[in-house]
Amino acid sequence: MKARGIASQQQRDAYFQAEPTAQENQRFGRNGAHDTRILSDAEFSQRLPLTHRPRPTRVTLSQLIDVVALSQNATRSEVLSLSRRRALALTRALIAWHATERRIATLTQVAHMLRRDPSTLSKAITRHRQRHPDLFRLDALTHLKPLG
User: Fold this and answer.
1) Which of 13, 16, 68, 115 lies 20 to 30 Å (CA to CA) from residue 2?
2) Left, alpha or beta for 115 (phi > 0: left; psi -120 to 50: alpha)?
């Protein structure tokens, strides 16, 4: 059994060290150019440093606001209002977290759009992330394309 496992490991190593075949290039695109895609599950992608995460398909900040507002039973106008309701604070924290984690916008850009201070959003993210960890996951918004 051990000899078979070693051969199998050697075969895997040889496969991953070899140049991709023409069929693989056609299937996975980019024709041999540097490919930054990562084959993984969502948990692995979330553990990657932000700078090493592949950019998802472009979702605008405006679209993100609409999706998160809908998922939290709020309207866009409520989210963009000056209201300090707790439910809206959570919605804004989700928008800020998903925008920065998905590299859609910086925290400063989100704060400007939501008419909030970046430090307020940062504190809200920290506070709400502890209370609602299931919402602060890259795969929480099924309407957006996952990273991995």
Assistant:
1) 16
2) left
